[in-house]
Structure prediction request, 393 residues.
Amino acid sequence: MFIRTLKLEQDQNILLLGPRGTGKSTLLRGLYPKETSYWIDLLLPATEDRYARDPERLLREVAALPPAIKTIVIDEVQKVPALLDVVHSLIESTSKSFVLTGSSARKLKAGSANLLAGRALAYSLFPLTSFELGDAFHLQEALKYGTLPKILMLKTDSAKRKTLETYALTYIHEEIRAEQVVRSLDPFRKFLEVAAQGNGKIINFSSIAKDVGVDEKTVRKYFEILEDTLLGFFVDAFHSSVRKKVGLAPKFYFFDTGVSRVLARNLTIGLEPGSYAWGSAFEHFVILECKRLIAYSGNQFDLNFLRTYDDKEIDLVVRRPGKPLLLIEIKSSENILPDHVKKLVALREVIDAPVEMALFSADPTSQIIEGVRCIQWQQGLRKYFSGPDLAEF
Prediction:
């Protein structure tokens, strides 16, 4: 059992979102024991069917609960969205707390507007961070297979590959087929592969549409489905003018390096330090760590990237309320040289605002080169992205 960075407010109504397999149920079972909690697992087909047929059954069950039961936990509530209205009613009429989990925000966004309007605290849970793993963290394993808890429990490469393949198939079946969000699964399967192969690159919607054999509007819808089912997130292009920012294509990052590699059909391809694939996976993983720590710390940071007209690019431009913009370049090198910061230094003049610059790398020694703080990537995460809850790791 790993200690998670995310801390939930006790005795509150909570909506905990996160992709399948990130450990939502495990986290909650440690916080809400059976002696004081009533658990409803909607992943069980019979349970899902029972509440889908009669959502108001929950009203009658809660009325019959003994006083010792303080919390009702509903796992994967998006399976029966009609329960959200019932929960809303119960929040208003009972003293019990409700803790809901979900691995798809698509139905919840349509069905939980009232629930989230001040009646429940919303949290997100992600795969394990390098800090949560502690001594069990191994960079090469994290880049190859990701950090989903179940994957980390497996001992062999073949078991990890097979489990990731099963995870991808389960996602397609349960989140896409069951919810009927696409008319045909075949082009969507092809889209998943193409999107994963382009992970972290600026999205060319028209090119992807040609590769998949659908129109550009459908590709945009597919990306929205990935975001809604929590398989990834967009990083928008930075521009100091919001008006000029409109129309610039975003990047898309899958939520886990292992899931991205299995969808791209790259799991059997070697991942060696110093290779282009290693550098791309390292950049992906560090950005995921930034995203996770921002969510856990509660910092209202916004991640962007910068691409200039002459194709110079900065991996991350971090908007931090009340602080200068933070420009971050990510390098997998273990030996940072002055040449590595030239792009950051040159682009400093492009941004008409106070900036702070950092280079995250695998180099264990910190340096300051031409005003750029060159820092080992985990130390950089602690310095710029950690909240008080990271102090125990």
Remarks:
- The mean pLDDT is 90.
